[in-house]
Design brief:
The complex is a heterodimer of chains A (about 180) and B (about 110).
Chain A lengths: L15 H19 L6 H15 L1 H6 L1 H4 L11 H19 L15 H21 L4 H10 L3 H18 L3 H4 L1
Chain B lengths: L12 H22 L4 H5 L8 H22 L15 H18 L2
Classes of the chains: A mainly alpha (about 180), B mainly alpha (about 110).
Chain lengths: ~180, ~110
């Protein structure tokens, strides 16, 4: 059975400019109130630090990198954790109201489920490691850092597209 | 009222968490409306078929940037207090490359 393509189901997607305007205004509002932008990957670092601390506190506190994430108290008081939960809810709300909510493993017509899942794990690991190295992901660096013209964020955006175009050549059959 | 509100202590950190939920919900909703729940749509940019990723991302960056410049220009927001990511060129270049790889391979 070939996988379904959600683009052909439910309501049409918005024009990229309309959706971009919405995200841009959300980002502006966040800067106006908080003084910083939106993020995503940082929430997973908070979660990692807290999970490690609950299993082996000495080890977590001895880790110089994760220690900094343990001072904020409860996970529910971390700004980025709450924001990312909001992203999940907002995405769910969007998919529900557009009639696009499906339980599926989306992939190209010739890709197997197993291959897609293995590649998802490989890709996710690269994104996780890369986002710690770069101090942020596409949300924190490209979007938020880009809007305040941070030099490193724009370099990040360039190498992000470079990496995408280079490595996409190897996995074309997974998607196309 | 002088922005940014939380660094200026016009708003406490507890209300900041309400803002986190609100901003997150809007961000997630607009991302979904853009079609970014679909890894096939997201990766189509790398096969020169659908440039939504670039269009959405750059529209958002330009809107936020222009908004900040205008608000800063008329004195409504203190641009000095905005968080600007630190610059570490090699880690950011390598991190970007790895995230590009992961995005193409993993789909998000």
């Amino acid at each position: 059975m070939s996988p379904r393509n959600p683009a052909s189901e439910g309501q049409a997607y918005w024009s990229p400019y309309k959706a971009g305007l919405g995200i841009g205004l959300t980002l502006l509002l966040t800067f106006y109130i908080m003084g910083h932008g939106l993020g995503a990957s940082g929430a997973f670092t908070h979660l990692t630090a807290k999970l490690l601390h609950s299993v082996t506190p000495e080890h977590a506190l001895a880790n110089e990198y994760l220690r900094d994430y343990l001072g904020t108290g409860s996970l529910w008081k971390s700004w980025i954790v709450i924001e990312v939960l909001g992203v999940f809810l907002g995405g769910l709300l969007g998919a529900l109201t557009a009639g696009r909510l499906r339980l599926q493993i989306e992939r190209g017509p010739q890709a197997s489920r197993g291959r897609r899942l293995v590649l998802a794990l490989v890709g996710g690991t690269a994104v996780g490691f890369g986002s710690r190295l770069a101090l942020g992901c596409t949300s924190g660096q490209a979007l938020s850092g880009g809007a305040v013209l941070a030099v490193g964020s724009w370099l990040f955006t360039l190498t992000f597209f470079l990496g995408g175009y280079l490595f996409a050549l190897l996995v074309r059959r997974e998607w196309q | 009222m002088k922005a940014p509100l939380v660094p200026h202590e016009m708003l406490g950190p507890e209300l900041g968490l309400v803002v986190a939920a609100f901003s997150g919900i809007l961000f997630g909703f607009f991302l979904e409306r853009a079609g970014f729940g679909s890894p096939r749509k997201l990766t189509a940019i790398f096969y020169f078929q659908d440039f939504a990723v670039l269009r959405v991302m750059f529209t958002a960056v330009v809107v936020a940037m222009a908004g900040l410049l205008i608000l800063g220009g008329v004195g409504q927001i203190d641009l000095e207090l905005l968080a600007i990511p630190d610059t570490y060129l090699w880690p950011q270049a390598l991190g970007g490359l790895l995230i590009g790889l992961g995005f193409a391979v993993g789909g998000y």
